[in-house]
Design a protein that fits this description.
The chain is an alpha+beta fold. It has ten helices and seven strands. Helix 10 links the parallel strand 6 and strand 7.
Length: 318
């Protein structure tokens, strides 16, 4: 394929130089010498262009198949020239038998190159199509993996992380806080009055309330903090790198106040309250299970005392 293309191109250039120099030489007083000088100059130009451009062009020939078609056209033009300038075809065939033989040979080589290249193009196209198919399938698998991860780690209703993901993140935060000797607050939040909304207006409105609660939690915390839905009407917040217990208590108050604000779900006015229990790492627990259990105990202490409020484990109820 390489020698066919290079040889064909080079020989066509040489043939064109002979023809061009012959006609240009007639414009000068001494055509024979002018022809030789012009031919020498054109040879030098072709050699320079061939080394500088055509070799580089060949390297991209697979992506530039129209060149092959142009090559064949040039060959036929060269062949046609010999018959165009004479009326005696037999004499032309006899006189120019070797140039014509060379052009016919080059034609066959060019045709072979074209067909061989088309075969290569077909194989390359099939490979490219297969690669695109693999890329599409890989994209679908990646998207499916993202969806599976989303279903595995996030609550499908509120979009908040679920219980499993909450404990995974909590383990990481506690490990980091242990290295940095910083404090972490766990807020366990249970909605008061949510069951009445579900029983009165149905699950659709109840789901709307849960979604609104999730949105409000995100509005209360920092981007570096973490809110999750543990299940039902129970939520939790990881509030890390806190300065003291008071900062955790202030966050609990802010959440409690925002959740008490009226919610409108499909034009239905809904109100809920919240009982919030707080546990502090490492003061009241050094592992995730202990911290969440202690926050849960502080929350239930609030419920036993009339619901709606903030409780800190191992501390008095606010």
């Amino acid at each position: 394929m390489q020698w066919s293309y290079l040889l064909t191109t080079f020989n066509i250039a040489m043939d064109d130089i002979i023809i061009l120099s012959f006609h240009l030489g007639k414009l000068f007083p001494e055509p024979q010498h002018a022809n030789t000088i012009i031919r020498l100059g054109l040879y030098i130009i072709v050699i320079v262009l061939f080394q500088r451009y055509l070799l580089t062009l060949y390297q991209s020939i697979v992506n530039n198949w129209p060149i092959f078609s142009a090559l064949v056209v040039c060959i036929f033009l060269n062949l046609s020239y010999y018959f165009y300038v004479t009326d005696d075809i037999q004499n032309t065939l006899t006189t120019f038998k070797w140039p014509l033989f060379l052009l016919v040979t080059l034609s066959l080589a060019a045709y072979g190159t074209v067909f061989y290249s088309l075969k290569r193009f077909t194989a390359m196209y099939a490979l490219e199509a297969e690669n695109l198919k693999i890329q599409n399938e890989t994209g679908l698998l990646h998207q499916a993996a993202i969806e599976l991860e989303k279903y595995a780690n996030y609550d499908t209703l509120t979009g908040l992380p679920n219980r499993r993901f909450f404990f995974e993140i909590l383990e990481r935060v506690l490990a980091e806080s242990g290295r940095n000797t910083s404090k972490v607050a766990i807020l366990f939040i249970d909605l008061d009055g949510f069951k009445d909304i579900n029983d009165t207006y149905g699950h659709k409105v109840g789901d709307g309330v849960l979604v609104t609660v999730g949105s409000r939690l995100l509005m209360c915390i920092r981007e570096s903090d973490f809110a999750a839905r543990l299940g039902g009407d129970e939520f939790a917040v990881i509030f890390h790198n806190i300065e003291d217990v008071l900062s955790a208590e202030n966050l609990g108050k802010r959440i409690h106040k925002m959740l008490q604000e009226v919610m409108y779900i499909d034009t239905i006015e809904c109100k809920v309250n919240s009982s919030i229990g707080i546990a502090i790492y490492p003061d009241t627990g050094k592992d995730s299970d202990t911290l969440l259990r202690n926050a849960d105990l502080a929350m239930y202490e609030i419920k036993r005392n009339g619901k709606g409020g903030i409780g800190i484990f191992m501390n008095h109820v606010k």
